[in-house]
Amino acid sequence: MAHGPVTYRNWSARARRIARALDGVEALAGPFLRALAPAGDPPEIPRSILCVRCDHLGDQLMTTPAYAALRAAFPAARIDVLAAPWGRAALEGNPHVDAVRPGVAPWYDPRHSGLAGIGRAAAIGRTLRRAPYDWGFDFRGDPRVLLFYLLPAARRRFGFSGLGLADLLTDALPYARGRAPLDQALDLAALAGAGAPTRTPVFVPGTAARERGAAALRRAEVPAGAPFALVAPGSNRASARWPAERFAAVARGLAAAGLRVGLTGSPAEAPLLGEVGRLAGDGLADLASGVDFATLGALLTEASVLVANDSAPAHLAVAVSCPVVAVFGPSDPALTFPYGDQGRSIALSGPSDHPRPCWDARCASDHGFASVSAEQVTAAAIRVARPRAVPA
């Protein structure tokens, strides 16, 4: 598809330079690149759809309403998602997805960076081209995803313009930086004729996850039916973590209000969980050990409330209708927590001396964290907490 002069909408100056360079390559090598696309015309009604989302758990959860929209519009189509290893757990048991295929994104994952990661991405793209899809969607908006995955995988390609390589798409919307990723994903689905049945993330804990959750509560000596709160002080970015001592103060406040309090997080967050536990004093339940993402989803279906940073657990709580109080620093809740239910899903942030969102890990600003008090968070959590019924 042809475009006029490009106004690049990538978040960072570096990304805009990369996009400009890729467009320069495309201008010279366009016919060669388009030859990588599968041959044949796509049908009006797709028989197979590939959705590409190779980033983190929270981003994957925010895209699940778009998968639900595609399923509702095209119930007979096969819908697969290409996901990176660190994001695929968000799709476990998703009723709108037929299969999750492995992907990598070495350009923003240091664990798979370098030439080896690029080689893996290219190999996955070649595999996709051997059995192409009718339609494909790049829900993140990344020209590298388009080049490596969407172009060889799909005859009809939906994505965002203004980010680089848009001429390799067949259908595009301008990328809108001020619009939440959840809504941008729904916009892209709507471009394909799929209306939104929901804006709520989708996650359905299975029977096995619920059994593991019940076992975790028994190990932590949380009495059956007793109300309990979960505290998740981690985040995939150290700069996006509210201070450990404030999480500890919230844990003490929730315990004083009569809630059993459990700490949860990933294995990599064990040192942080230990620090919060030490600062809070004795009595916090261990609801991290042996608790994977699906099991956390099951625990959240039973919990009275979750207190967390802007993180995957906060999105998971929304998906399973658990009340949540999420504390925001460098990220913008209007973009990454666009749920707007102040009766159950609360985003708290203080005034920041630096624009949000801020992706610079070296930024010296505290992004308003100091203005969010433990008392404020505790009061909000107690206000939205739900009782837990004792089984008959």
How would you spell out the order of helices and strands?
A: HEHEEHEHEEHHEHEHEHEHEHEH
Report low-confidence residues grouped into runs of 5 or more. Answer: none
Specify Rg, calculated over alpha carbons: 22 Å
- Give the mean pLDDT: 92
Strand order of the largest sheet: 3-2-1-4-5-6
Let me know the number of strands. Answer: 12
Helix amount, in percent? 25-40%
CATH-assigned homologous superfamily of the largest domain: Glycogen Phosphorylase B
Shape field: globular
Largest sheet: 6 strands, parallel
CATH-defined architecture of the largest domain: 3-Layer(aba) Sandwich
At the first level of CATH, the class of the largest domain is Alpha Beta
Q: How is the CATH topology of the largest domain named?
A: Rossmann fold
Question: Please, how many domains?
Answer: 2
Task: Report what the structure shows.
By secondary structure, the chain is an alpha/beta fold. The protein has two domains: 13-191, Rossmann fold; 207-384, Rossmann fold. Helix content is 38%, strand content 15%. The protein is built from twelve helices and twelve strands. The protein has helices at 13-34, 57-73, 114-130, 143-153, 181-191, 207-219, 244-256, 270-280, 293-302, 312-319, 333-336, 374-384, and strands spanning 48-53, 78-83, 99-102, 133-138, 154-161, 171-174, 228-232, 260-263, 285-286, 305-309, 324-328, 345-349. A six-stranded parallel β-sheet has the order 3-2-1-4-5-6. α6 packs across α9. 49% of the residues are buried.
